[in-house]
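From the pipeline queue, job 12 of 40. The input is one protein chain; the requested action is below.

Action: predict structure.
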Amino acid sequence: MLSHRLLIRSGYISQLGAGIFSFTPIGWRVIEKIKDIIRSEMNSIDCYEANFPVIQPSDIWEESGRIDSFIPPLARFTDRRDKIMIIAPTHEESVISMVRSEVNSYRDMPFSLFHIQTKFRDETRPRGGLLRVREFEMKDAYSFHSNQESLDEVYEEFSKAYFNIFNRCGIDVIKVAADSGAIGGKVSSEFISIAENGEDTILKCDECLYAANEEKAEFKKIIKNDSENVMEKSEKETPNIKSIQDLTNFFSLDAHYFIKTMVYFSGKKPILVSLAGDLEVNETKLRNLLGDDVRLADNDEIIQLGLVPGFISPINNDFDLIVDDSINLKADYIVGSNRNNFHIEGISPSKEFNIKHYEDIAKAKKGDLSVDCDESKCKGMNEYKGIEVGHIFKLGDTYSQKMGLNFSDTEGKQKSVEMGCYGIGVGRLLAAVIEANSSEKELVLDKNISPFQVYLVNLNSDNTEVKEVSNSVYSDLINSDYDVLFDDRDEGPGVKFSDYELSGVPVRIVISKRSLENSEVEILERGKEDFKMVKIKDINKELSKLI
């Protein structure tokens, strides 16, 4: 990833292990400035800063029911008292443990708390530098409400604050519907910075503005197969023809006339999944339907179940069958026969299938109409790559009900508190800013988060006049409350200018024998090709325009 290469070359970070990084002093200055922006925007919506421990007792995770279901699995150890402790991947349990002794009545709400704290998630494949790590700093906030209307209102306040945070850090984002994943809740939204090498795929209609992460995206399914009672049921030899593409060529039929069936494992239980031949399975939707993690079976496992890879049949077996709602249950289809080199024509799902679930489990794709699209105006969704920089959730009573976070309503009845959750990965945000604005040669940061405001370069450092003037300019800038990085090393211009390119600092000032001939300095604003000659006495005046 570009951001990883630049962060290493610029000396912002140092890798300690897989997915574990140290920040150098210059890198930490940027992180602190990002955190200052976050704190400012949280304060603006009356979200108050607290602090919760990195190490948590396992009993609160048992209360919430997530001790064995959190993905990736919780990192844990046993302390000297033989108590199991958790290295926190998130802090819903901790914040509830604190506030449930303080919340008694509807009058105590709404309120919001946030902290910026270390998290640890034992990712299987940490990658992309700061974009996918195991240890990281996150701003997570939690809001508490007596009713859904209050949660909805504060959720929108956080949404606006998040747009402000990302704008002040120097990136544009789009807000998209998202899957809630391990955090839970019914509704969540991600904030995505569009980037060619981002790991998230976003589907967005540019007309109606519907936008969703691919794993969450819902689309209008057009039932294309209306071939009821037109095919006679018969077995057809299909020698070594396994793929949908090969079948369409063999039968001279479109892909939606075929049903493809795959084997998944939900836990240790095998599940058959069938959908129209022109669609793919959305494993996130499948996981949410089953309430458990899922994985695709390999060929050896399929054979061990008595099924034939490439010719799996959704009929005449004892496995649970999930059918996507793209399939017209009354139409005729061609399906696998569970015999090598044979398919069956004329299969009507309503007559032949023993269906456990008939649900939307298909993956939306570019060109599909979203559920919000107007068919007369919209042209279908476009596909974008992006980086998730923030995620907000309407948790509802997902945790409060399990952990006893209750209150008395206006009639004195006990109810569970409604909650919201709001996260930003601080290091990930820095990486996303670099991905959005930088090049292989140049690390570019917005002036609001750059480590310094001015990069002061002293050329001809062996010259007494240059040295004295440089020191004087440095002192004046410091006294004028500018953050200045003074490069007075005994190095040539090439080294110093190259290091400036990687510094992220928005303005460079060069003092040399040549510039002092007219009592001037060179001032270059990042992003501009040409520098400007400015009288020494006018440096502050010029900087006030740029910074």
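Job complete. The mean pLDDT is 92.
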